[in-house]
Structures are given as C-alpha cells and as structure tokens.
C-alpha cells in the first residue's frame, strides 16, 4: 500500500553505500558552530517535521523550492545532509546542510538545506553526522541505520482545504438530533417508500432499540434538517464548531439512510431539497456566528435494494435492474445469477454493490463525471455544499470486486478531479479504519480520512483502557506516544492536519460508555482532541459525555437539557475550541513530545509555530500530580512565562522546566 517507499527499497545497502561514496566527494560541508567530533550524535536533540518552523513550504507549487530546517543540540554535530528520492528520475540526491543559528534558549543549533523546485513527487530523510558516528531521521524519528519507510513528503500542487485544517467538525445523525418539523414525522406501522419493513415512531428520549415486530433500522424519532437549522446557534456559538457533517440525508427507508433510494431527493422525513438549501445558507451565513461549512455523506459504493436503479420491491416507476435484464440500469450492478444472486456490500443483500465499470461508465458518469452528477449537483448552487465524506470508499470497484486495487484508486482519482473542478477548496474525506496512506499520500485522491487508527483507537486505549469496540485493551503513556508517532508518519503533513479525529461516531460505542461514565475522562479526551494534530470531530452528544453502546445504542437522541454551557463538559468544549481558534500552532504547528511518564500516567507535548510555543500537559491518572515539564525542548527560555489558557495560571520557566499541578484526568495548555 505504501507506494512511496517502493523506490527506496529498490536500492540495497551495497548500492546505497556506492551512491553515498560517489556523492559525498562533491559535498561542501559547513562546520560553523560545530563542536570537535566526539563521534556521538545526541538523539535527544534531533527534531524536524513539516510544520511552519521547519519547512518553508509545506504545500509547495511546482515552482517553489523547499528550504528545510533541522534541529540538533548545540555544537553536537559536524555535518548534516538531506537525502531525497525524486520520482522524476527515480534517483537519489544529496543536499548538504549549513548551520544558521541557535534557538532562543541557546541549547540547540539549526541547520538548513534547500530542495530545488520541480513538479515531481519527492521523499526525504536526514543524515546527521558527528565524526564517524551517523544517525538518520525521517517522519518516524531517529534511527541508527538508514530507514526504508515513512520518509517526509514533498508533493507539489497537492493542497488540502485550509478551512478543514482550521475548523472543528460537528457530526449529526439527523434523526436523533432535533425534531424541528413534526409535520414530516412518519407514523408507526407505515412502510417507508414501499419498503418491506414497517416503521416504528418513538418519543424523544426513548431507547433506540425496536419493539418486537420492528427493525432497529426502522425506528424513527423525527429529527430533521429544520431541526439542525434551528440549533445552528448551539453548534456555532455554544459549542463553537464551524463545520457540520451530516450522516446520509437522501431518500431511504431506514433511519441511517445508508441504503439510498434516490440520490437526487432529500428524504421527506428530513425535509425537502429546499430545506437543504436553507440549511446550507444558514451554515454559510455570518449573521448567526462564524461562517460555516457543510459536508454530506456520499454513499457511493452501494445503494439500497429499493433504489430506483435496482427497484427490488417495485416501489419506483422505473424498471430496475432487479426487475428486468433489459433495464437501462442492468449494468449498474453485478449479477451472478439474475435476479437473486448479486454482489452486495459486505454480504448484506439489502445493499447491492454498484458496478463502476471502466472509466467513462454510466455509473461513474452519474455519480461524479456529468455536470448534473450527484457529486457535482450538491457542490454547485443552490446547495453549495463544501465537501463529501465517502462511506466505505475502499470497496468501490467494477464487476462486483471489493476494491483496494488499481480500479478503486482510478475511481477516486477521477472523483477528485471531478469534485475539485467544481470547487478546488472542497473536501474529500474517506472513511477508513486503518492506514489510509494509499488514498492520501499520492496527492490525487482523498484529502483526509477518518482517523480511527491514529486517534480514536490510541486515545480510547490510553484513557479508558478499552479499544473503540469497548473491549479491554490498554496502553501505557509511552506506548500511546509511540502509536501516535507511527500513525502520523503514514501521512503527508497537510493530510495529518485534516484527519478527522473523533472520540465516537455512529459505528462504535460512545466514548462516554467506554469511559465508564466518568466525565473527567471525557474532559481529558476533549483537551487532547482540541490540541492534537488533525481536525477535531465531535459526534453529537460527545461534548456532554453522551452514553451509548454498539449500534443502535450509539445513536440515542440528543438530550437537550444538557445542551448548554451550564453543563461543565459543554463549557469546556466551547473554551477549548476558542483556545484552538486563537492559536494557529494548535492547528498547523509542529508536534513534539516533551514528556512520557508511565508511572504517573503523565504526557506532555508541544505545538509550535513561528509565533507561539505551546506545551500541553495531560494527567491520565485519577489523582492530581505535580509535574515538571522540560519546556526548553520547545525552546522556552529560562525567565520567560507561560499561561495556562484553561485555568489562567501563569508559570515561570526555571532550569529549563515548568512545574505545575494537574488534576486527575485533566490537563493544561501552557502558551508562550
């Protein structure tokens, strides 16, 4: 999957030595401010990432040279070099680095080198030398031998949306959020749109489980788009989120709408296409709070079996593929034996898989290529949505296959071209539960992915001792930090910055339940969520610690008695988003580990840019701890002060550190 590493693996150790020997003879090594060799590179001082302090152009154009900065302990090394692979000539190149300055504490040296501009993709790592000793450094960190994977990226002309980097997402499962229009409520015992299972309408606050004789998927509470619009003040101002992501809203017989019946029609239980236009206008308006953005759920891998193209129950006037092999939609699906044996999504026969066919096929055209395709219609006026979250996109394929091959990547490359042709600043967020490198690291498919592996899972295991499926599985602080570092290294920096970081979502048990109902664990999780790399994504209700087990219990109705800043977790969410909005370093700055303390369950890290140095301190123990944080690693000088933006307390840096007391399952955000 990690195609970017294949070129580096093609050259073996012997070849690498030959290249190094022939290339180094021409390097001019600047040894200014370098100590005499002690043949020992101090790993503790090494640092680089692609934040604004260390990379002059994290999102370069093809005409932008990239100047890289590398940090070492003062006087520790005799030379440093950048080694990069250039896809244009499938070759390696060396750039000698020069010493330029010390940091604010005088503890560190900075060395720089420049990779010339071009349109080609490049991957780079650093070689650090002290006399006869050599260390290597790439996105995974320092190593004694040359790494073969997880290098830093230069992807010219690949840009992820700035509004997604700088925003906070609020995810809404529409039926369970707020009932703003009771006139579109469905009655118990009726059959939604000709489906073969009856609906059950329940009162707000009731259990989401169906009564006997009904299906969990056919339980409705009346939440709708008007309700979302009516709660815009809560989302934008009480919480402070500025991006709304809606679970599917198109016509479908279920409450979750992942079994689409008609992509071009908003589900009547949620309102109408006009209601969607009103909602989009309200989100984008600045009269009700900051300008917002709207992301819709694109369920393009499969349809429902009552979709007008399939029409299994004959509820639509069209002749569907299930009804006749002469249907104009027969090629949209893959039949092994017509009509009852057909390719499905994960074996669910209510979800027939779409057959994307070859480039230019009818399915590709109707979903994203045509001017009036599904994807382009909603990106254009009058809807003007800002992006698509793709449901199970790795399974999209031709001929009933289940994706993850060249056809799948071709589909999403075409999809990106189609979407960006309408709005270059639109977002494409792929649902993926593992390493989404294959879809994000080439710069030609998704902007972002759901960060189960790099955020939801490690955070859940560290704080709750449970994985995201609510099974016992714990991490020490050191293991937590290592898991974060390893998963960050899977992605270009501009992808890391827009990864969707959620505590819960509609597919996993609620964080509040995994935390055993301990609201302090939710506090701690929120502090991390709002200060870590990526786009914080709040699943409605997580901001007050909503409880819920596996589907459908994770889709309870919102308790509006908790939807106020008199709820301490809601108030903290509002404060944390405000802090995040105030400091770009928390959104696009470097990430640097400062402290891991397994005995006391303490963790500290820095977020850095050219304006601010911020140290975040987290206490994952049940009791308060005094913690001494080595903030000089983040270039905070002795005698300078930092302010905890949560408590307001001010601390002075002394002997390279700040000492403070942090409550159990809580944290501090120390800003300088």
UniProtKB/TrEMBL annotation:
It comes from the Bacteria. Transmembrane segments: none annotated. Residues 1-34 form the signal peptide. InterPro entries: GH, GH13_cat_dom, Glyco_hydro_13_lg-like_dom, Glyco_hydro_b, Ig-like_fold, Ig_E-set. SMART domains: Aamy (SM00642). Keywords: Glycosidase, Hydrolase, Signal. Residues 171-580 form the Glycosyl hydrolase family 13 catalytic domain. This is Alpha amylase N-terminal ig-like domain-containing protein.
